[in-house]
Amino acid sequence: GDTNAVLAGALVASKLHIPVGHVEAGLRSFDETMPEEINRLAADICSKLYFVPTEESAINLAMEGISRKRIFITGNTVVDACFRNLEISKNREKDEYDEGLAELDIDNMENILTLTMHRAETVDDKERLINIIEALEELDDMNIIFPIHPRTKKTMENFGLFDRLNDLDHVHIIKPVGYLDFLLLISKSTIILTDSGGLQEEAITLDVPALTLRYNTERPETVTAGGNILVGSDKEVILENARRILDDEDFANKMKSAKNPYGMGNAAELMIKIIEDADKNDNLKMEAPDEVMSSFTRKMKVIDEDISVDEFENNNNSLIKIAFDGEEIKFPYDDLNLKGLTIIYEDYAN
User: Fold this and answer.
1) Per-residue pLDDT for 99 more than 90?
2) Is 219 among the domain residues?
3) How do residues 141-172 score in pLDDT, each as one tens digit?
4) Does residue 246 sit in the same domain as residue 277?
5) Partner of 135 at 20 to 30 A CA spacing, among 205, 215, 231, 303?
């Protein structure tokens, strides 16, 4: 993750020589004004094992110099949690719902737009908030459900904007709900409008089109796959894309059918096996060296023979950092055939 708690835990553990496994490693928004981006970078520096959700995240780490042997593409535990808990959330009685959700009777509600906003760059900027609210005012044929974060509510009240939104008949502001209730709400939504990172993943996992109230994302795979659109805080862009999802069935279905890039729901199982194997092979030790370090030379080479990454490294006492197929970057899996590829590697032979 990318919270302050993750950063604190990773930093303290690394100082105590306790190996850290970072779940959601390698995510990058490339926006260093985001506190979470600094947390991600710092937590990754402190980590021993990197559990990345996608190849794109793996490439981020490889380009930053992390050894491929410590990077594991597992998918994300968000998908595990969604698949495990969705049916549980649907099979409950209505009297088990949180109060705010129960009162809305979402089982019989149409055109639900689930809204979340909590990031400082969204809710601390009055102009951005006004633009978003103006878009919401015009989406009056939707049922907008807004489980509001306490900090967001306070900021909106300070800006004099809370009542403006709360007074709209089609907007339903409720207290934050529990995980099962929120999964149920997502699954019944027509559109997700959010500045959250994790919700971008949950939306594409549950086949719900997402519009993200940001100008960048550490989940670019959702955009590439076609299940998510970055709309920033631009009123017209929000309205244009929301209307298109509502009015263009083919477009909406294309977003709904976007392939989930975050795995099959077995990420936690893969992580446990990786940790057990690393422990069994004595790869989790955090000890000061007692031998003079081996020197290496960084080299680039075009490979013209039929050989895998693993074979090349064993034959040449080397470590491949990254591979290129023309202009396309490839992560160097053990069994990747290198013929015709250009590689950057560390040569330990001399």
Assistant:
1) no
2) yes
3) 999 999 999 999 999 999 999 999 999 999 99
4) no
5) 205
Q: List, in sequence order, every residue forming a beta bridge with 301; answer none if it has no partner.
A: 343
Cα 113 to the chain's mean position, in Å?
21
Q: What is the rounded CA–CA span in Å between residue 66 and residue 109?
A: 49
Q: Contact, 184 vs 157, CB < 8 A?
A: no
Q: What's the gap between Cα 303 and its chain centre?
A: 34
Backbone angles phi, psi at 166, to 5 degrees: -65, -25
* 77-90 vs 267-280: helix crossing angle, rounded to 10: 140
Active site residue 118: yes
The per-residue pLDDT for range 304-322, each reduced to its tens digit, is 999 999 999 999 999 999 9
Q: How many CB atoms lie within 10 A of CB 149?
A: 16
Is the distance from CB of 189 to CB of 112 less than 8 angstroms?
Answer: yes
Q: What string of DSSP letters covers 128-179?
A: HHHHHHHHHHH-TTSEEEEE--HHHHHHHHHTT-HHHHHT-TTEEEE----H
DSSP track, 300-338: EEE--S--BHHHHHHHHTEEEEEEEETTEEE---TT-B-
pLDDT of the residue at 264: 94
Q: Does residue 86 lie in a domain region?
A: no
Which amino acid is residue 54, in one-letter code? Answer: T
Catalytic residue selected from 118, 149, 170, 172: 118
Say whether both 305 and 234 belong to one domain. no
Work out the angle at residue 67's Cα, subtended by the Cα atoms of residues 218 and 1, and round it to the nearest 5 degrees.
30
Tell me which residue range forms the domain holding 58.
Answer: 1-76+263-287
Q: Tokens representing 172?
A: 């339903």
